[in-house]
Write a sequence for this structure.
């Protein structure tokens, strides 16, 4: 097996036993990037020299007797998360050439854990999209079928993980941006509880919804990465001051799912769900039952309102967050003669169509005369969505559903139809609105494309969803399937 | 109620400091109207007395000690500026 194909935990063991060096591992990943990147397009930028320097340094530290959870492990970072000294664009022309003067907290924590950074992965512009086609730079192709999208907005991270262009990656998730691409690319993607992971240095989209999380080849890797990035951060006032468990120990505490109450939200089998996806999800639920879980139907009655609430709340927050792009402190500037015209021309030239659409939508929802009808109303319905989760989690431990109602679709098929693109997020946005956690794990194929099982837990229920996912993974082989890319 | 007029599209664009081409205005008028019409389903729900959720967190008024801590140097803060002068960001005149 080529080294790039290793999981994080496999590489960790081999590095610890001295069977491989971080330089060898990093070179293997960089060779893989050179071989497949032209087809996949997972990265906005790759930093091979920096990666090799970090790998050399990791090998030196290990030789000196150090051991850290990610010492010498090559990772990819979504380009919506800032990295000191390495250009960060958020997939936008308005940030082209921007070199962050500091690290995001998650990036600083990965550095502390000894990680090697391969490059910055592609994203829909400002993480607004579900296919990565709204990146201002290039599309990313699904490693399982190059005519299809990888999902989005963390499509670069999911594709890089699936294609072996990194051992694992970080993504961000505002309404499904980790789970949808993980599902489309046949990898594991975890969206933590709001407040579990610091957002400091995550380029803001919807601040009450955004979370950073891992995209990995298996569940154990997700547990390792989450353990490295989770925790309270004085630089993010919305992080929770709750202890971070040893997630790797947590996932191994169970040997089956006996005693676990798994709720099936009937509303999540939405109209229009593809038959192949539904079949895979039903089979996965049967597998959970076989492992000892008690399966029961539950109702989350306001689910259908998730999309309209999300597409009011997220654009409203985005329209405020993106007001900072004015050509004064960083990024693009187009001089328009006077101050206001400079703002207008900079933003007109720097933002792509989806970002403009969301800014327009959010500005409208927040504007005088429409605030109560749209924004306030959406926030009230958000309360009802949260209560749905609270009530469900009084009856069950976790909920399961599909991560997306369909498989990865063809490039270009939805890019000019915003509402259809928005509806892809129907099974994921509710978690962000409720502030709860969820993970997508591979659970089968439909028409040759991966399907993801979404396991949803209550706030700070990461151990529970990881345990459930790990037991499912131990009993199945789906996560071991690899795309035939480059062979 | 939802269908946006062209004048409303122009008003929103100005509030957001976006200059749209005529083509963009026409496309946005149609696409935004479609999304807003979809969002009309929220009006079916009676939300009388339901408090709005601004954050899913049980936190409020998070404070830190008011102490000086390391921050970016002037040079670092200005490094990405399109234009800077005398240690400051340079902008076009705000007042004529």
């Amino acid at each position: 097996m080529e080294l790039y194909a290793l999981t994080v935990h496999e590489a960790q063991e081999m590095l610890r036993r001295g069977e491989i060096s971080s330089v060898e591992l990093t070179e293997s990943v960089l060779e893989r990037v050179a071989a497949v990147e032209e087809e996949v397009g997972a990265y906005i930028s790759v930093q091979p020299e920096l990666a090799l320097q970090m790998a050399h340094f990791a090998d030196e530290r290990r030789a000196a007797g150090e051991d850290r959870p990610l010492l010498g492990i090559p990772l990819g970072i979504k380009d919506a998360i800032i990295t000191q000294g390495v250009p960060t664009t958020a997939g936008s022309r308005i940030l082209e050439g921007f070199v962050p003067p500091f690290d995001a907290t998650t990036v600083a924590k990965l550095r502390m854990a000894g990680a090697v950074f391969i490059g910055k992965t592609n994203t829909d512009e400002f993480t607004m999209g579900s296919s990565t086609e709204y990146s201002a730079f290039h599309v990313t192709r699904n490693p399982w079928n190059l005519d299809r999208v990888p999902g989005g907005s963390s499509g670069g991270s999911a594709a890089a993980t699936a294609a072996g262009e990194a051992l694992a990656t970080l993504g961000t998730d505002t309404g499904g941006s980790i789970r949808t691409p993980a599902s489309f690319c046949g990898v594991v993607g975890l969206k933590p509880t709001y407040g579990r992971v610091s957002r400091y240095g995550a380029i803001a989209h919807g601040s009450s919804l955004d979370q950073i999380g891992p995209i990995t080849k298996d569940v154990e890797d997700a547990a390792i990465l989450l353990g490295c990035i989770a925790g309270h951060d004085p630089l993010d006032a919305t992080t929770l001051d709750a202890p971070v468990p040893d997630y790797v120990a947590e996932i191994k505490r169970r040997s089956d799912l006996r005693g676990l109450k798994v709720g099936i939200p009937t509303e999540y089998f939405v109209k229009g769900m593809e038959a192949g996806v539904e079949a895979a999800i039903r089979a996965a639920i049967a597998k959970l039952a076989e492992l000892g879980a008690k399966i029961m139907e539950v109702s989350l009655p306001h689910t259908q309102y998730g999309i309209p609430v999300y597409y009011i709340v997220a654009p409203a927050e985005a329209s405020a967050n993106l007001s900072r792009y004015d050509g004064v402190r960083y990024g693009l500037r187009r001089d328009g003669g006077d101050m206001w015209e400079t703002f207008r021309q900079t933003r007109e030239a720097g933002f792509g169509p989806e970002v403009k659409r969301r800014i327009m939508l959010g500005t409208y929802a927040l504007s005088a005369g429409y605030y109560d009808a749209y924004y306030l109303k959406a926030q009230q319905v958000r309360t009802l969505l949260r209560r749905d989760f609270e009530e469900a989690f009084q009856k069950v431990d976790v909920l399961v559903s599909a991560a997306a109602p369909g498989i990865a679709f063809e490039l270009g098929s939805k890019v000019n139809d915003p509402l259809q693109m928005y509806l892809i997020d129907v099974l994921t946005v509710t978690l962000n609105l409720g502030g709860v956690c969820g993970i997508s794990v591979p659970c089968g194929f439909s028409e040759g494309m991966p399907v993801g099982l979404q396991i949803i837990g209550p706030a700070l229920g990461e151990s529970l969803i990881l345990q459930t996912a790990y037991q499912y993974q131990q009993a199945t082989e789906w996560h071991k399937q690899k795309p035939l890319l480059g062979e | 109620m939802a269908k946006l007029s062209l004048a409303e599209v122009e008003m929103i664009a100005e509030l957001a400091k976006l200059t749209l081409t005529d083509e963009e205005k026409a496309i946005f008028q149609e696409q935004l109207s479609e999304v807003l019409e979809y969002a009309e389903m929220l009006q079916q729900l009676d939300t009388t007395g339901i408090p709005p959720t601004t954050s899913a967190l049980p936190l409020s008024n998070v404070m830190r000690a008011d102490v000086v801590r390391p921050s970016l140097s002037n040079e670092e803060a200005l490094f990405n500026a399109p234009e800077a002068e005398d240690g400051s960001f340079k902008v076009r005149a705000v007042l004529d």
Observations:
- Chain B has a mean pLDDT of 92.
